Amino acid sequence: MTATPDLRTPQLASPDLLRSVFRRHAAGVAVITARGEDGPVGFTATSLTSVSAEPPMLSFGIGTGASSWPAMSRTEHVGVHILGEHQQELAATFARSGADRFGAPTGWREGPNGVPVLDDVLAWVVGRVVARVPAGDHRIVLAEVLLGDPAGPGRPLLYHQGGFSGLRD
């Protein structure tokens, strides 16, 4: 049976409409990190996008009201970590306002260019920020990938309908 969109009752554009639509969109989960003036900062992102292969470039969005924004607005380098389905609690920690994101049990070390690199992720890269593009109450950060490691074991963590889950076979 095919579901036909009901074009008689569309909702007007609003933040709630956009949130509701994107709850239906499954997305991979990443944690973005940087070195801040007072220590490491980071946040959970589902807006990670591959932008260009030559040069290798990616993007992610961050709200200008986010606690990580002041550091992200000034940093020259970022870490991007693809989380595995075993890292739901890590994703929740980096998404939670006021959490001690880099305290125990979070495993991490200082990586290239002083960027915090998280332990036990599926893949990670360090990138050089090349632009911060205004987009409403967010900024789209473009970063050129400098180095990384895609070889972590496991399957990706997904975000869908307001919660974290794994792939189903």
From TrEMBL:
Q: Which SUPFAM superfamilies match?
A: FMN-binding split barrel
Oxidoreductase as a keyword of this entry, yes or no, is yes
Has the keyword Membrane been applied to this entry? no
Molecular functions (GO terms)? FMN binding; riboflavin reductase (NADPH) activity
Keywords per UniProt: Oxidoreductase
Pfam families for this protein: Flavin_Reduct
Question: Which residue ranges does the record assign to the Flavin reductase like domain?
Answer: 22-166
* GO terms for biological process, alphabetical: pyrimidine nucleobase catabolic process
Q: What protein does this entry describe?
A: Flavin reductase
Q: What is the lineage of its organism?
A: Bacteria, Bacillati, Actinomycetota, Actinomycetes, Kitasatosporales
